[in-house]
Amino acid sequence: MAFGMQLSQRLSQSLVLAPQLQQSLALLQAPTLELKALVEQELQQNPVLEEVDGQESSASDDSELPDLPDLAEPPEDVKFDSVDLPTDKEPVEPVDDFQAEFDKLVQMDQDWRDHFAQGSSPIRTTTEDEEKRQFMFDSLTAQTSLAQHLVEQVRDTKLDEEGQGIAELIIGNIDDYGYLNTTVEELAATTSVPPEKIFHVLKTIQSFDPAGVGARDLRECLMLQLERADRTEALEYRIIRDFMEALGKRRIPEIARGTGRSVDEVQEALATIGHLEPRPGRIFLSVVEQYVAPEVFVVKNGDDFLVTTNDEQIPHLRISNVYKDLMATGADNAEVKNYIREKIRAGKFLIKSLHQRQSTIANIGKEIVKRQRDFMEKGVAFLKPMTMAQVAEVVGVHETTVSRAVSGKYIETPQGVFEMKFFFTAGLQSSSGQDVSNTSVKDMIEEIFKGENTGKPLSDQEVVKMLSEKGITIARRTVAKYRDELNILPSNLRKVY
Q: How open is the CA angle 340-41-78, to the nearest 5 degrees?
């Protein structure tokens, strides 16, 4: 067998996204809060761009800024000749008459100034709202962790220096929910401290706030809370201590026979147990609050709905006039001219991309409102099935463009604020041939379970029959799936004796 090197040719197709298209995709997919960060980054990288407020903002003139291609299906070799944008393969030619081009750009900048001022987006910020918002930010405080809270209590105890060290070791092994993740024996083996002393320090920690902290399992956690309330002789304490397994499976008759109490007394005790905290450290968990700014507003206007985009939160950009003077100082330097010209082209493309982003989102919002008019007027029960392909066909873009445009974005409707993806749902067909959204079916199932007799809870098959009477054909396993998604327990665990 001979080894050697040879040269061969082959043809292959590949999808190449130009940097401008990658930027447009990022702008389209980014929610409002992320969009601001992207624009700030562009402002730092492109010196010819500047941000202005809403009253001074420039508006796009479609005659000056050409339409962008569909962002989901770019051709293999994208050219921007109509925009006069340089590509990686296109050499930059020297500029002969840049002053004339810049004068045209200044005129275009003047035409941009009144666009957002003429928009139909209503002003939703008042002085009172701003004062409330500022008060909220001024009221924010740094949250204390569970470990810090326990260590502070250790310092107030009568433990000696060695005991405090053991306490800090135990606290280091308590998870965020307040449970000890190791055993006393394991701690003794790693520290060479007698287990009796570690257990003594652990009992001290279990007396700390919150009640139940430092427990090694759920049973001990609940018992600690009842001990703190001086209810060791109560029926609840005995049930947790002796019938924990039966409690988990709600075997109420078995618990009643074992305790010698009536079924009603056991159920009252279970109701009290249900008010105990199974995760005592939960109150110290840092909650990551998600702030959303609706991209689309839907307002009832007579018999119709007015759809507007949130232009107030979108950064407004324009090309700085300062670079006209810079061109005068570098008139004899072709490299300077070409650099500024490239930055201006990039700035024009960014402004156009922002404008098209708003236009695409607005068109999608209008189509959502058109197809979901009954929802806008009556609520979730009247939500209709709708796919992204249907909306894409009407808007005139690719289906993946719709997916990017609605990703992580919200719409404010007369029924509340919803994620735009909420309206794209699959459907079931009723006996009359009408399509029904699966979200509406879930709402029906939830209402059915709310109205059931708790003494004889409905089975999934009985729910199937009830939906069939309403003209909705659905499988039992689908009902079980929707019930799990609604966090509704099976019938044997919902029964009340």
A: 65
Residue 459: strand, helix, or coil: coil
Amino acid sitting at position 91: P
Run of H or E residues at 49: strand 49-52
Of residues 85, 83, 73, the one with CA closest to residue 17: 73
Write the DSSP string, 308-351.
EE-GGGSPEEEE-THHHHHHHHTTT-HHHHHHHHHHHHHHHHHH
CA–CA dist 490, 476 (Å, integer)? 13
**CA separation for the pair 330, 98 (Å, rounded):** 11
How far apart CA 139 and CA 135 sit, in angstroms, is 6
Kindly list the distances between the CA atom of residue 19 and the CA atoms of 85, 87, 293, 313, 403, in Å, as whole numbers in the listed order. 11, 8, 28, 25, 21
Pick one of 1.10.10.60, 1.20.58.1970, 3.40.50.1100, 2.102.10.10 as the CATH number of 426-497.
1.10.10.60
Distance CA 291, CA 162 (A): 46
Burial code (b: 16+ CB inside 10 Å, e: under 16) for 125-155 equals eeeeeeeeeeeeeeeeeeeeebbebbeebbe
The pTM (predicted TM-score) of the whole model is: 0.59
d(CA 92, CA 232): 85
In the chain, where the domains are located: 16-61+96-116+292-425, 146-284, 426-497
Total residues found in the chain within this entry: 497
SS3 content of the chain, % helix, strand, coil (to 5): 50, 10, 40
Alpha-carbon separation of residue 486 from 208, 417, 446 (angstroms): 36, 20, 7
Alpha helices by DSSP H, 379-469: 388-395, 399-406, 438-450, 460-469
DSSP-assigned beta bridge partners for residue 342: none
Strand ranges (DSSP E) for 404-444? 410-413, 416-419, 427-429, 435-437
Residue-wise pLDDT for 221-266, tens only, equals: 999 999 999 999 999 999 999 999 998 888 899 999 999 999 999 9
Q: Which tens digits make up the pLDDT trace of 55-73?
A: 555 443 433 444 444 444 4
DSSP designation for 6: -
